[in-house]
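Quick one: structure tokens for this chain, please?
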Amino acid sequence: EGEKGDSRRVAKLPFVSVAVRIRPSSEEPAALWATEKSRVCCNRGFLLEEYEFSRVFGPEEDNQRLFAQLQGPAITDSIFAGVNETLFAYGQTGSGKTHTIFGSASSPGLLELFVQQVFDTASLRAGSAVHACCYEVLGDSLTDLIDSSALEAEGALCEDDVVHDELFIKTQRCRYQICRVPSAELCLRLLRSAARRRSCGVSSVNGDSSRSHAIVQLFVQNPCEPPMASIGTLTLVDLAGSEKEHENPSLHGRKSARLLNTSLCSLNRLLRKLQTGCLDESERRQSVLNKCLWEYLRPGCGIALIFCVNPSLQHRAASLSTLAMATDSKLIHSQRKCQYIQLSPHTPHETIRQVPSSPSPRGTPAPPPRSAETPRRPAGITCTSPRQESARREETNEEPEFQRQLAQSARHYERLRLEAERAHDELASDNMALRRECESLRGLFVRQQQQQIAFWTGPFLEMVGENSAAKAMAKMAAKGAQEALAAVQQGEKEDSLADAQSLSLDGVSRCVMPEKTSAQKLRAEMEYWRDMALTLQRELHKSKSPKAGVSDTETRSSRSASSDGVL
């Protein structure tokens, strides 16, 4: 441990950094199996490959065995020493990640086992306090899964036990609850109800699969020498399974698979940076999942990754990809560092149970915490309970109603501005599309008229020969086509003149309704050229009849000449 805010590395313990867990499967033969406690063998069809990790758990080993081999008690002691510990369940859909973290009715998961261990340790350390939160991440949204209203109605939780933290995601502000839990039973009851509210849906493997990334956090504050206190965090991450988008049978499932795969790719890039030791601040902004886990994956935190695989032959490709990621993750070295906070000198020793402020990245002493601040809060944001907020307003003589109306008006104005810009962009795009379509129709019409002129003045005259009626009809058709071309050219000149006049208008007149007038004009012009094209098609249809008449006349004359010769 550190001494009075000095951050020092925790003594090396037998922590497991990378573990592989093989889920039970009735399919034979299996594509991979555990050969030893630290080795897994994979059948690639034409050769056998063997991988080595910190620990390999076979299908027969339960969550209790997993907790013991992962050094769960040592991780708990590390949390009470002021270290941030993070455990991932990583793998494909249907590989047993949710069972590993949340367990089942017959087999408790790592979450329940860690909660029991944390409260057993807290009972031996006077003044320790435990807070819990649970939320899910899907795409660019964060949803709070904690519902403390029922417990508050029962009296199990009081108003000051629940505080709210905020996380800004792009243009929206996401709030979630952090509850101070006095016992393991109450904590498990709160987290189990949160797990039932997690988003589920159809996947390519299961009919009821997790469709979001679930994050559970336990904040432990442990008093040290006054006025110091250590602050540690246990973060359990149940990642949604990766799957190919086209393999999901439902439309909603394909959309969620696309969002989940995108966030998993961003997380993979972050893990790759951890493997090479070049993690930078840019990875924090790549996704909401990265932003939520950033403070608990930085240097100084303990990281353990549990890679879950399915041994079935049909999932061999996905399992090999998971094992490749697990092999690369062995390069991640956790250098655990203790973190401390400094309490106010006038703060009684018993009031340490309030949630402390965010620890500094390197474990240096932080300034005295404000009331009910959480260790997860972003910089510059304070989380307070309702009673403390009302007291602060009374002290500072604020006008909350006026500020609320002002903020509401600002949000309304911003929303109207965004809607106006969006409508303007849509109208401009429609305008450009109509212009392109009109230009295309105009070009098509010009080409058709040129072809008509070339036909009536060339091949048709040679074909009819001395037929005066056919020549007159050809001249009329060519004249009509030339007039149509002249009209098109005149229309282009008028359009260019109208565009020049519209550009010469002032800014106010351009902002009133130029797009709407231009759009209506283009639509009318498009309808005109469509009608003109239909008229030309009908004329072409009719023009075939004189050709047929001429050919019939020539045929009859040739037949009469031949008959005269025979006679």
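Residues 10 and 492 are 80 Å apart (CA to CA).
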